[in-house]
Amino acid sequence: MSDIWIVFSIIAAIIVLFALDIVPVIAVCMGAALALWASGILTLQQSLAGFGDPAVIFIASLFVVSAGLGVTAWAGQILIRQAVPMGPGAYTVLAAMGIMVILLATGIVPPAVASLVAAGIILISGVLKTEQVYRSIKWTTVILVAALTPLSTAMQVTGAAAMLADGLVDLVGDAGPRAVLAGLFLLSAFMGQVISNTATSLIVIPIAIVAANQMGISVQPVMMSVSVACAGAFLTPVATPTNLMVMEPGAYKFGDYWKLGLPMLIWFFLVAVFYIPLIWSF
User: Fold this and answer.
1) Please, are residues 65 and 104 in contact by the beta-carbon 8 Å criterion?
2) Model pTM?
3) How far apart are CA 9 and CA 131, in angstroms?
4) Are 47 and 36 in contact (CB under 8 A)?
5) Nearest CA-CA partner of 223 in 212, 234, 237
6) How confident is the chain (282 residues) per 10-residue block, as mean pLDDT?
């Protein structure tokens, strides 16, 4: 079996096991990462590289900031509008969060650094103790993101993603520009449910540019359509870090995401294929 089909088999196994919900999601994701190593597609270092990925650091740090908000009780005061006194360190947490938001908005530093700065302020100031920091991190979410990150690498290094993209563009390229948008949307939306939407966009964007140039149409509606498609990561808990972050505290299962995610994805499809060309014409 070629490396490409091994990757496809691993993706299929992940989807099936998630859907059946008979194996813990952490075990599924770690198994996928180790399978990429055992099959020789990735080295052991590459298979475990996700644990040092900036997205993992960013998510873990956000959990610390969230815990600081909870300890100081300022969020409850604002939401329920009652005279609940803010706890010790509330203003420190607010300042740390403000600094993080400014850093994220300006792009002065990478998101992982911005979140680490905020988490560091909360820890150093004594709002949270080290033990509280460890307890605040949702390790299920962190491990899920870290273990599935190598799958993005495998999709690219084996050529599996390129094969899918090239085949889809060849299939619908003669049916007109809207058909190309629909095809790219379906490809992006499918891939975005099992690998990060950032990796999906990096894979699909070059193909979309070539398709637009070959058809003699503007690249603007095509790029915006791909952007919307990659943002439609609603159907699985591993589609985007946000889905993972709410999975454990909300006690959601794999199938729960379809209930809201599928209608949202259909709406995104209509916007990407029919509305976007009205703003940026072909």
Assistant:
1) no
2) 0.66
3) 40
4) yes
5) 212
6) 85 78 79 89 86 81 81 52 56 87 89 88 85 80 78 81 75 79 87 72 77 82 90 79 76 81 90 92 84
